[in-house]
Write a structure and sequence with these properties.
4 helices; Jelly Rolls; alpha+beta; six-stranded antiparallel β-sheet; single chain
Length: about 200
């Protein structure tokens, strides 16, 4: 089964839509296919950790951003539905602060590849939502920073019919400009080095 793999407006991020085989018993699809992903993107993604998160309706998680040496993420929705958002938080990037939203749900079979330096957040749209994360290396808190998903400078267009439910950590996170001034966000240059490493390991 082939997947449609296409770049997103935030440089280095990719959208993967899996083809499904469906009959009267149900369906079968491949959320991740290494060879197809590498052929389309030039990147070699080796999953070294898989993580599932379950969220209830209106839960808003993020924004979380990996450092330049942190893991790339491959995210898909196994149950329910979310509005998933990626945000360029690489200092020095020409699109710093730009965001892009994609619906992920159990029916559209869409996944997002998110490189280090690009932030990730989502809000759950269904009563129960399960996301699967494939990480290019094991997760360590020291390799991740949080930025406020309700930062007015970012002005992410979250659904207006939901009242976001957030963790204390996410609610207290700094805005993007504050985080940049504090020096806690990765530089575009350092992130570009990690991308070149991922490409050089292709094959």
């Amino acid at each position: 089964m082939d997947s449609r793999i296409e770049p997103l407006p935030i440089g280095g991020t990719w959208k993967v839509t899996a083809e499904a085989f469906t009959d009267d018993r149900g369906d079968l699809h491949e959320p991740f296919h290494s060879a197809q992903f590498t052929a389309a993107t030039g990147l070699k993604l080796v999953a070294r950790q898989a993580t599932c998160s379950t969220s209830h309706r209106s839960v808003l998680r993020g924004i979380r951003v990996s450092s330049a040496t942190g893991p790339a993420k491959y995210v898909t929705c196994l149950q329910g539905a979310v509005l998933d958002v990626v945000v360029d938080l690489r200092v020095g990037s020409s699109t710093f602060g730009r965001w892009h939203a994609e619906p992920l749900d159990q029916d559209n079979r869409t996944a997002l590849y998110i490189p280090p330096g690009v932030g990730h957040a989502f809000v759950a749209l269904s009563e129960t939502t399960t996301l699967l994360y494939l990480l290019s290396q094991p997760h360590h808190d020291v390799q991740e920073q949080a930025v406020n998903a309700l930062d007015p400078d970012l002005a992410i267009a979250w659904p207006t019919d939901l009242t976001p439910r957030r963790s204390t950590k996410d609610s207290a996170s700094p805005g993007a400009l504050e985080a940049r001034q504090a020096g806690i966000l990765p530089s575009y240059t350092s992130c570009a080095s990690s991308y070149r490493s991922a490409i050089s390991h292709h094959g």
